[in-house]
Each structure stands twice: as structure tokens, then as C-alpha cells.
Design brief:
alpha+beta; 2 domains; four-stranded antiparallel beta sheet
């Protein structure tokens, strides 16, 4: 997809990259690499591209890695906005998490607009096997729960394409697994991130 089809404001997408194809098998899904994960900002008034961040992800030693990153803005990069909305690891997380999920669901990953909070999401739920949620994923959820506080369930549900009730259950699982401490008082929100339990999977 090119910038001519981009909506006003910020959007994020996965596109095919040029070069030899390197298939990556994860679970029962094959991901065709390399791909580009981008973050594009369009001027709502003029329709012109204001800024573009693009990460190229390819297979390196059998696993996906970011091999190239470009940040372009002819008007000058908004460093404050990038500091707030861009995270270096997010493009790789998209490829290892959301891209296999889209393929497994039978969706075209190149026709999907990704969530853009935290470029393109503060965290992306990794591909789950047999319904198991990893400690890494629950730690991410716990961290975002503490950062967002009020309204966390609705905002995270929007980013992960699940119901707010599911997000609440993730927080409860994080507490049960010892990743997030109990709230300071019964029935209240909050808590603290705990050290990863020894021997956890």
C-alpha cells in the first residue's frame, strides 16, 4: 500500500519488501519474509506525507530480526512525538506476534491497518499455543495496566482485538502468576510489577 491510500493522521501497515524470500515457520504458520512495518503520518489538510518510519524485518540465523530502519520527514522529525509514540522493538513484535495471528486467522496481513498506540501498539499479543499466555505477554499487560490505570481495559481491548472482559482476565492471570502484586487495598486498582517467578514457563 502506498501513501496515496493512507488515511489522514497516523497509520501503520505491513507491506512486502523487495529481495529474496525467506520463509519463517512458527507454530503451524509460515511467514514470508522480508516485510516492512511502517508508521506514516499524513497531513489531514493537504493529504501529503509528513513523516514515515519504516522497519525492514528479515530472517537472520533462523529468526526474524530488524535489519534496517529509516526515519524520514522533509519538514523535520517531531522528536517529542517519536519519543512518545515510537518503540524500536515494536516492528519486530508485529512480525513475531500479530502477523502470524493474521495469517492463522485467514486474513490478508497486507490489508490491515495496525493499531498505532506506541507504534503500532504498545505491545502485541504473541501467537498463543493451546490458549497459554506467556509470562512475557502478561508482564507487558501488567505494565500497561499500571501505566494506563482508568480505562485500561477498553484501550487495550481495542489494540488486541478482544473484549475488555478478556483484558481484565489477563490482569487477573498476571496477579495469579506472581507477575503483578495485589492492589494496596481489597477491591482497588494498582499493584506493582514483581520479579519473574523462578522456573516460570
Amino acid at each position: 500500500m502506498d501513501t496515496e491510500s493512507r488515511p489522514p493522521g497516523v497509520s501503520s501497515r505491513i507491506t512486502r519488501a523487495d529481495g529474496p524470500r525467506h520463509p519463517w515457520l512458527t507454530g503451524e504458520v509460515t511467514v514470508d519474509l522480508p516485510v516492512i512495518v511502517d508508521w506514516v503520518k499524513m497531513d489531514p489538510a493537504s493529504g501529503e506525507q509528513q513523516a514515515r518510519v519504516a522497519a525492514r524485518i528479515d530472517l537472520v540465523a533462523g529468526k526474524p530480526e530488524v535489519v534496517e530502519m529509516s526515519l524520514i520527514s522533509h519538514a523535520g522529525l517531531d522528536l517529542v512525538e517519536l519519543q512518545r509514540d515510537f518503540r524500536w522493538a515494536s516492528p519486530l513484535t508485529v512480525v513475531t506476534g500479530i502477523l502470524p495471528r493474521l495469517i492463522a486467522a485467514g486474513s490478508d496481513p497486507y490489508s490491515v491497518d495496525l493499531p498505532v498506540t506506541g507504534f503500532p501498539a504498545v505491545a502485541v499479543q504473541p501467537l498463543r499455543r493451546r490458549g497459554f499466555l506467556s509470562d512475557e505477554f502478561l508482564t507487558t499487560i501488567a505494565r500497561e495496566y499500571l501505566a494506563r490505570r482508568r480505562g485500561y481495559a477498553a484501550s487495550l481491548a481495542h489494540e488486541y482485538f478482544v473484549s475488555p472482559r478478556t483484558v481484565v482476565s489477563w490482569v487477573e492471570k498476571a496477579r495469579a502468576r506472581g507477575i503483578l502484586s495485589a492492589p494496596p487495598t481489597r477491591g482497588a486498582a494498582g499493584g506493582q510489577l514483581m520479579a519473574k517467578p523462578t522456573g516460570s514457563i
